[in-house]
Amino acid sequence: MTDRELERLLQIAASDVRYPSAADLTDGVLARISAPASQHEVQRRAFLAPATAMLFAALVLSVVLVITASPAGDAIARFFGVEGSRVERLPPAPPGATATPFPNSEGLGANVQPMSLAEAAAAAGFAPGLPSGLGGPREVYLVQYGSQAVVVLRYDRFDLWQAQLQQNASFGKQVPPEGVIQEVSVRGEPATWLTGAPHFVSYILPSGQELRESARTVDKNTLIWRTARAFYRMETDLSLEEALRLAASLP
Q: Is the pLDDT of residue 20 over 80?
């Protein structure tokens, strides 16, 4: 069960909860607030305020540590890796159950158009970055996710996806238990390397909803990173070292 599904179930359960009626304490509380505080009460509040703030901060820190140390927290913590990317570790299937199949990995998904590099640049609103030393790509595609344009440059050993993501939009990735999620860096900036098993990828709209037609399975190693120019995703059979070298050559 994904975090999104769990959240939906909790919301459904909460809507059925009926709280018991309670006495109306409004008048008593207002009278207590309006009453002038004694000198002793003023001193007590002044003493307790810093201690209460410190206790609250300690509790918040404890919750954060527990969440990020837990299996569920592993997925949550990874949301903070590369801006525009949400990598989630899928839980193993329960004993006797069959894991949910991933979507088909045929092609680049829906709403794909082959075009020239110049046409793709004009449609996307920016000039796609080219890895140094390789020349131009073998094929160029424009993938349209609603109003979001993504350019895909196809080389012999990798596909290079790049986009200037809309605010709050992201690519969600779900990695099975046997997959490897490795935190790396490209020119000192956070990057993520996915390998070891096919993973599921989809486009998440700025509203937070998943665009269903964007769902696809990636059965290659994937390097994810971002620069001031664009968000990048390289799907490849290259090694990590080779992928990082090419990534570092991009603007």
A: no
Three-class DSSP category at 171: strand
Residues 6+ apart with CB under 8 A from 246: 131, 134, 158, 234, 238
- Residue 87 half-sphere exposure, CB side, CA atoms within 13 Å? 26
Residue 89: which of 178, 161, 28 has the closest Cα? 178
Alpha-carbon gap, residue 232 to 152, rounded angstroms? 10
Q: Return the bridge partners of 191, or none.
A: 184, 225
Nearest to 87 by CA among 172, 176, 207: 172
Q: Are 151 and 233 in contact (CB under 8 A)?
A: no
167 sits in which H/E element: none
Structure tokens at 57: 């901060």
Distances (CA, A) of 100 to 92, 93, 203, 208, 222: 10, 8, 19, 22, 21
Average pLDDT, the chain: 77
pLDDT, tens digit (0-9, with 9 covering 90-100), for 186-209: 999 999 999 999 999 999 999 999
Distance in angstroms (rounded) separating the CA atoms of residues 240 and 223: 8
CA distance 70 to 79: 15
d(CA 235, CA 222): 5
Helix locations, 88-147, DSSP H? 117-124
Buried b (16+ CB within 10 A) or exposed e, 71-94: eeeebeebeebbebbbbbbbeeee
